[in-house]
Design brief:
By secondary structure, the chain is an alpha+beta fold. It has 10 helices and 16 strands. The protein folds into 3 domains: 96 residues, Phosphorylase Kinase, domain 1, CATH 3.30.200.20; 185 residues, Aminoglycoside phosphotransferase (APH), C-terminal lobe (Aminoglycoside 3'-phosphotransferase, Chain: A, domain 2); 117 residues, no CATH class. The strands form 6 sheets. The chain has a 5-stranded antiparallel beta sheet with strand order 1-2-3-5-4, sandwiched between helices. It has a 3-stranded antiparallel beta sheet with strand order 6-8-9, covered by helices on one side.
Length: 427
């Protein structure tokens, strides 16, 4: 079933004829189509070391050739800047009988895609992915800016498309809630300048080997864009624990993280309904991404008056579990019946800027460095919004890895580390 209006048909027989006519040296190599959820190219293996890619859309051979040459230049730039393999251009094919556009022959990279080997729970993969994103950013734009095509510029420029997606998603999704989410996402300001970005880090475009990133595919979108754009991979590739590892490694600001949700949301909204029949894998990816974003968007109630404030409430779905850890209403019996100070739940996504975590340690492993005062410059990260007016508290080491995944978002810290303006008054 065709995915797009005007999609170009191509099968193994046509690919075989084009290869034999233009590259006789490869006539003896077996040609077989690669099963893929990709939406832009049909891919055929050519022997064991090569692959051919035929664009599925386009009517202008000159424009198609420019895109293939741009992708080849991107591959050379990335190969020189990162340790992760990318496909290299071997040859460019010409239009021929049965196919009207230029096409490419590339090297074939070993590994399984993120669709075939789900890396969502792999901390090692998250670390590798963060390393790749950082290396791409470090290339430098050298005067290049966002072209205005696709994702990566102004969120509000996508209003028309989002209105279409919301209308078409009736019957598929909770459109009323998603409409409210987009209304909030589109207002997020843009502060950071463009950086170089892959711009399409989806499960089908990463290769996995033994839980590690083994390669990156499809460089056709590579270019300058919003730094938050490549962070869509945190939402379409990773579950909560590894996602936090990636965020910590890249030192994402709260605004950058929220914008990453917005770009992931914009992409996912188009996948669910558009590919519902023609590409179920991509449609499911859209649903998975939206589920992760919506789960992360379940925030604590807005802070109320500061007078008489003592602690933030535990979200209702988690109250019973959290109370089992922290004691009734935030108190636990101390040794010999003494009462411990009140505690505050501070690691809900809404309050991520208040997290206290050991510098250099992923959040899933440690809450804080043992027996270190919470002050800047001593190896413990402190939110810039916290300005203690008295000697800072001491946060003890709490291993998180042994807890169930759903509990890792909850941690405790002495009430003295939490400014009163961010707490809820008692009743």
């Amino acid at each position: 079933m065709a995915m797009h209006a005007g999609e170009l048909p191509i099968d193994a027989a046509v690919a075989r004829d084009l290869i034999d006519a233009q590259f006789p040296q490869w006539r003896g190599l077996h040609v077989r189509r690669v099963t893929s959820s990709g939406t832009d190219n049909a891919i055929f293996r050519l022997g064991d070391r090569l692959a051919t890619r035929f664009p599925l859309q386009g009517a202008d051979p000159a424009a198609s050739r420019r895109e293939l040459e741009s992708e080849a230049a991107a591959a050379r730039e990335l190969a020189a800047a990162t340790r992760f393999p990318v496909p290299a251009l071997v040859a460019l094919g010409e239009p021929g009988p049965g196919y009207p556009l230029p096409w490419s022959v590339q090297t074939w990279l070993p590994g399984r895609t993120g669709e075939e080997d789900d890396p969502s729970g792999e901390v090692t993969f998250a670390s590798d992915l963060a390393e790749f994103i950082a290396a791409v950013r470090a290339i430098g734009t050298r005067g290049r800016t966002f072209t205005g095509r696709g994702r990566g510029g102004d969120l509000k420029n996508h209003d028309d498309w989002m209105h279409t997606c919301l209308r078409e998603s009736e019957g598929f999704l909770d459109v009323r809630r998603l409409t409210r989410m987009w209304a909030a996402f589109r207002e997020l300001p843009r502060e950071a300048p463009d950086v170089m970005s892959h711009r399409d880090l989806t499960p089908g475009n990463v290769l996995i080997t033994a839980g590690h990133l083994a390669g990156v595919l499809d460089l056709g979108c590579y270019g300058a864009a919003d730094p938050a754009l490549d962070l869509i991979s945190a939402w379409n590739l990773l579950e909560a624990g590894p996602r936090q590892v990636l965020r910590t490694a890249l030192r994402c600001t709260d605004l950058e993280w929220e914008r990453s949700k917005a770009w992931a949301f914009q992409q996912a909204m188009g996948l669910v309904w558009y590919y519902a029949d023609s590409n179920p894998v991509m449609s499911r990816l859209g649903r998975t991404t939206l589920d992760r974003i919506m789960a992360a968007a379940e925030v604590l109630p807005e802070p109320l008056r500061a007078e008489g404030a003592q602690r933030l409430p535990v979200p209702l779905p988690k109250r019973r579990v959290a109370d089992g850890l922290s004691g009734h209403r935030g108190r636990r019996p101390g040794p010999r019946g003494r009462r411990r100070p009140p505690t505050a739940v501070t690691s809900h996504p809404r309050w991520s800027s208040l997290n206290v975590s050991g510098a250099g340690h992923p959040a899933r492993h440690y809450q804080a460095m043992a027996s270190k005062p919470v002050t800047p410059g001593n190896g413990v990260n402190v939110s810039p919004f916290i300005t203690p007016t008295r000697p800072p508290p001491v946060v003890s080491l709490v291993p998180i890895a042994i807890l169930p995944v759903e509990l890792t978002q909850y941690r405790e810290m002495p009430m003295g580390a939490l400014p009163s303006k961010w707490t809820r008054p008692t009743t």
